[in-house]
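COMPLEX REQUEST
Ligand: adenosine-5'-diphosphate
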Amino acid sequence: MPILGCVADDFTGATDLASTLVKEGARTVQLLGVPRPEDPVPEADVIVVALKSRTAPVHEAVAESVAALDWLLAAGCRQAFFKVCSTFDSTDAGNIGPVADALLARLGAGFAPVCPAFPANGRTVYLGHLFVGTALLNESGMENHPLTPMRDANLVRVLGRQTQGGVGLVPFATVAQGAGAIRSAFHAIEDQGRRYAIVDALTEAHLRAIGAACDAVALMVGGSGLAIGLPETWRAAGLLAAHGDAARLPPAAGRAAVVAGSCSRATLGQIGFARDRVPTLTLDPLARPDPAALAGEAIAWIDAQAPDRPLVIAASATPDRVEALQRRLGREAAGQLVERTLAEVADALVARGVRRLVVAGGETAGAVVSRLGVRRLAIGPEIDPGVPWTYAPDIAGGLHLALKSGNFGGRDFFLKAFAMLEEGR
Ligand code: ADP
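STATUS: Structure written out below.
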């Protein structure tokens, strides 16, 4: 019987969370999209349902998230986790607050801790303020995100604008005192009638203490870091047995390619690095705002490349160009145009024998994976913090997929990912 049921608001975030739990020794299966009632419950300690709800209309995000939770509860999960981005990607309309409100209501619970910290990737929370490396969230590049520009680093305020539920803070000084103090702070904040607490965390040790303090909470809301301490907590409670290496995938073969739709600083850097080393095509949706024409251009280019080299196809652009397209089409339509294009490109790549595919961008990954018809992923070894190789068994011939959240990974991420599979790790 699964212990934890997770609802993730995007596909890359879901793999990040699943990878964290696998590394901590919990058998984890990722399902893509709301499972159907008749779908079998996987033999696992944790089930992560990946949705593409981060930027969906609020009512859709709420309905899908509650449907996923219902399935997870029917599967026997005893605790729930709402996985959001470690940069708290959302707008003032949501979707984090409204979805969390709905999940709490469904669980009949009155309180959830909220913590997006991920120190291994430079995301820390101090006095409720989210930092990315040394920069406040709103000065990290995230203020220019195409869909969810983050212009306020104070998460008590950000979440406060998305919910009527009241948002408190468990400050660093309390977190540093350990699980007992954190648990007491949760109770105090709930007793004050507030529904959420932003929890400070600067280090992995803080996250482990927070995990221990979450042993009895019905719902946690956060990044993958918030899950780091959970398996150990379950082991201590006798809920989780010891397992061998949970991260083995079948051997990889076939062509390699990258599809990039993230416009984050990290992804732009990774594309620049790859461009000097492997064939790289940058699509220009501003010059040609037509998915069929853009995909056609990409496919003609793919067919002209040697089959033995990794290919990179990117639509990613600098903030001024993204803004220009959005001014022309509107924010949502611009995003969808590019996502549709890249999904079609990914489909063409797989049809041409690509069996190792990296997708950069959360929304982009959602679009690609839905188009390919992937319903389930096994989680493999980690390439860079938060991004594992995964394996989709339901694609004919199998498909190795790395779904990279835009801002994750070092400059050499793409080539490092392929080298890792070639070395059979
Ligand atoms: P991240 O993980 O960095 O948030 P996402 O894929 O979630 O990346 O979001 C990036 C969004 O930007 C997607 O909706 C994508 O379609 C859109 N996008 C990509 N390239 C462009 C472009 N050149 N102009 C406008 N929007 C773009």
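REMARKS: DSSP finds 14 helices and 18 strands in the chain. Residues 1 and 60 are 29 Å apart (CA to CA).
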